[in-house]
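retry 2 of 3: previous attempt timed out while embedding iron/sulfur cluster. Reduced batch size to 1 and resubmitted. Inputs unchanged:
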Amino acid sequence: MKVIIDGLTCEAESGEYLLQIAKRNHINIPTLCHEEALAGLATCRICIVEVMDARQKAEERAFGQLNDDCGEKDDRKRKIVTACVYPVVAEIEVLTNSEKLRDMRKAVLTLLMARAPQSDAIGMLAKEYGVEQNHRWSSREDEKCILCGLCVAACDKMGTGAIATVNRGTTRTVSTPFEEPAESCIGCCSCASVCPSGAIPFTDLHGKRTIWNKEFELVSCSWCGEVIGTKEQLEYVGKRNGPSADVHGGEMLCEHCRAVREASRLKWVSQPGRTFA
Ligand code: SF4
Ligand code: SF4
Ligand code: FES
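retry 2 succeeded.
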């Protein structure tokens, strides 16, 4: 089916999310709480777009019911949706950067800035939309968390469930149980890597990773020395998926070195007179 985004006709599968279609066609829609590998949360509201049914619009245009040539000024005919969780099931026309949307995003960013004034990602977006720092109600001066929930979703997807959102109102935050090192945390850093506002600090120093007040032993690639993960993380994955394919003859290899080893092995066995053992 066809979807017209900012005047560009794009092909889409029924049920595909609007954000995916826009991305595939190099149309930028700002996002914060979206992560490809996780189910949509739609908590940040920054990816809002204006949507109108294309057939309805064509009919109304034919009967002269639209106010202007392209219908962009007819607000009543458009609905606001969050692109990251909006599945396209009919032909639609979409605006991603109208004046109305910019005003709405500005309002969203004003709230996010008030909540997390120390987040660089929010600061950059706020600057882009002309939002200035004003009153704030975060409980911490150095707050970066926008409470999007991505970190909790990532940890749940790992099956570890070591963190959750706790408290209410201005003291609402993400934490391990009782802010103590969580037994189930494996130091995988999935939470930190999906966080859109850099709110989860961790350090990798002298062979140790520290995250959520817990220290882990780091495991590095036997060939290149790059950090692969923590000992607890590799043991956990090994238990879930069976013995790790990374371990080979006592060696632990990173993805790149594994590919190099595989390529040289294939080259070796493909030489004349060689066969697979
Ligand atoms: S580092 Fe700990 S809290 Fe973060 S995703 Fe991994 S297990 Fe969960
Ligand atoms: S720590 Fe990051 S990922 Fe987690 S809720 Fe806060 S902003 Fe979202
Ligand atoms: S990216 Fe946050 S609501 Fe869509």
